[in-house]
Design goal:
12 strands; 4-stranded antiparallel β-sheet; 8-stranded mixed β-sheet; alpha/beta; 26% helix; 343 residues; 9 helices
Length: 343
């Protein structure tokens, strides 16, 4: 007796309503940005053992804009990035506000309105499921669509980042590092989030592959209009891809403003020190690179006053006792430094 073939029931894709653009009334307040961070603080422990790893970070990111968070290891960049998605480490005490278009971020927003491009693509992808299947599962986790529609969306997302449809059946270990990073970009963007957080997305990739991955990320951001927070220590990447830059040190933003002015004429001594330590292609080959003295402080041992004071060449007595407030300058940037006319 012949058995009838099993036919997967057809589930009609959810019809997404067409939303007409809202034209604000004259004099009405502007729409909130896709991402707004207000006085973000992340601490560990309690009582006398309480330590703050992120201390009062605030910024906005507009639609289609790239904000780069830069600084040395331990500055609090990745911890800030994770907190934007509600993914702070277990045991962390998070205060302040992270707002998506004016609404507090929740776990339900991850993958739908805000998404992460992680640093380690191999750990981010399942080793036992084909890459295309993982993207389809990401689609179905936030959209009521059939498996067929989810597969179609996943293949389209992979195609947009340059991964051939035939590779959708491959597993993560069968991809090169660059192809894996393209796959996690596709996964982050498959549901067209309004905000994308890319945490060191080119770590451990060679320069050519880095350029390819960043070009893919830029093209997808331009196509979708997503706001992008780019976490990196590579100032060359920042110069090429960022609209604005926030320089972090010891859990605080010490300089924040349009990328080109900050990079061409840094006002914070820490920013100036970072830029001075970059290789100069025009310099003689045996020229010794200047380096910032000392090391960033551990979160358990942040000095009083300005945290950068022990390493700063322009320090005064005030710097060792008073934490500098982040103040607005007349050129559109903000700065945390006691110097009256820094840099």
């Amino acid at each position: 007796m012949r058995s009838e073939p099993v036919v997967e029931p057809v589930v009609e894709p959810a019809v997404e309503p067409v939303v007409e653009p809202v034209v604000p009334e004259p004099g009405s307040p502007p729409a909130p940005p896709p991402l707004a961070v207000r006085d973000l603080r992340i601490a560990f422990g309690g009582g006398v053992d309480r330590v703050e790893a992120v201390r009062g970070v605030s910024f906005d990111v507009a639609a289609g804009e790239v904000l780069a968070l830069v600084g040395e290891s331990g500055a609090g960049k990745s911890l800030t990035a994770r907190a934007l998605l509600g993914m702070a480490p277990r045991g962390a005490h998070v205060d302040g506000a992270v707002l998506l278009s004016g609404s507090p971020v929740t776990a339900a927003h991850r993958g739908r309105r805000i998404a992460l491009v992680p640093q380690d693509s191999l750990s981010a992808l399942s080793p036992v499921h084909p890459v295309g299947e993982q993207l389809a599962a990401a689609v179905r986790s936030v959209r009521k669509v059939s498996r067929r529609e989810a597969r179609a969306r996943s293949l389209a997302a992979l195609d947009r980042v340059g991964v051939p449809a035939a590779r959708a059946r491959a597993h993560a270990h069968e991809f090169s590092g660059g192809m894996r990073q393209r796959a996690v970009i596709a996964m982050a963007l498959v549901n067209e989030p309004a905000v994308v957080v890319a945490d060191e997305p080119t770590t451990a990739l060679d320069p050519d592959v880095q350029d390819q991955v960043l070009a893919v990320l830029a093209a997808q951001r331009e196509a979708t209009g997503a706001a992008l927070v780019l976490v990196t220590h590579d100032l060359a990447v920042v110069r090429q891809h960022a609209d604005r830059i926030a320089v972090m040190y010891a859990g605080r933003i010490v300089e924040h403003g349009p990328a080109r002015p900050v990079l061409d004429r840094p006002r914070a001594p820490y920013t100036a020190g970072l830029l001075a330590s970059l290789p100069d292609p025009a310099a003689a080959r045996k020229t010794r690179l200047p380096a910032l003295p000392g090391h960033p402080p551990a979160v358990t041992d942040i000095p009083p006053g300005c945290a950068f004071a022990p390493r700063c060449p322009h320090t005064t007595d005030r710097c060792h006792v008073e934490v500098p407030a982040l103040r607005a300058l007349d050129d559109g940037r903000t700065l945390a430094c006691h110097l009256e006319h820094p840099a």
